Amino acid sequence: MLYCMITEIEQTEKQKEMETKTETSVVSKLNQLLIDYQVHYQNLRLFHWNVKGPFFFVLHAKFEELYREAAEKIDEVAERVLALDGIPKGSLKNIVSKAHVESHEEIMEANEMVEAIITGHKILIGDLNAVLQAAEEESDEGTIDIFTSYIQELEKHNWMFKSYLN
Ligand SMILES: [Fe+2]
Q1: What is the whole-number distance in angstroms between the Cα of residue 122 and the centre of ligand 1?
Q2: 42-56, pLDDT tens digit by residue?
């Protein structure tokens, strides 16, 4: 009886340990990035379609450039999850319930759209930092190698958008 209880406690502890490990693993951080990137992508498409005003031509083209870039990144993130034996998250249910990037409305001022994209980039940078930290803890050099440049690219986009707004 006592043995059974101890085994049960050990199993619960092990389960807790595994759950904690899953939460902090590279795969779960990559999946958060993947979910947020998909919302960000959808915002970019929406803004590409609906932007209005004197800077229509500039922003319409810029949002398209960025959503094409985001589509490639999304695929790369998902394929890294698969390379690490994970399951890439992409169901609308998962996206809606777990995204940290806000899903925006169709009608917005052009500058508000730019600000929303800057905020989206900041959230993605946060996700990427979490990926890199987990990858360092797990000595996952492959992940570090792929995603370090993502942060630099997003920071560059934000510098340009901030210059646009000033
Ligand atoms: Fe288009």
Answers
A1: 25
A2: 999 999 999 999 999
Tell me the pTM: 0.85
Residue-wise pLDDT tens digits, 102-128: 999 999 999 999 999 999 999 999 999
Residue 56 CA, ligand 1 centroid: distance in Å: 12
The rounded Å distance from CA 164 to ligand 1 centre is 21
**What's the CA-to-centroid distance between 61 and ligand 1, angstroms?**
8
141 C-alpha to center of ligand 1: Å?
A: 37
CA of 127 to the centre of ligand 1 (A): 28
Q: What is the DSSP string of the chain?
A: -HHHHHHHHHHHHHHHHHHHHHHHSHHHHHHHHHHHHHHHHHHHHHHHHH--STTHHHHHHHHHHHHHHHHHHHHHHHHHHHHTT------HHHHHHH--SPPPPS---HHHHHHHHHHHHHHHHHHHHHHHHHHHHTT-HHHHHHHHHHHHHHHHHHHHHHHHH-
- Tell me the mean pLDDT in the region 21-32: 81
In the chain, domain spans? 25-165
The CATH homologous superfamily for domain 25-165 is Ferritin, core subunit, four-helix bundle (1.20.1260.10)
Residue 69: the pLDDT is: 98
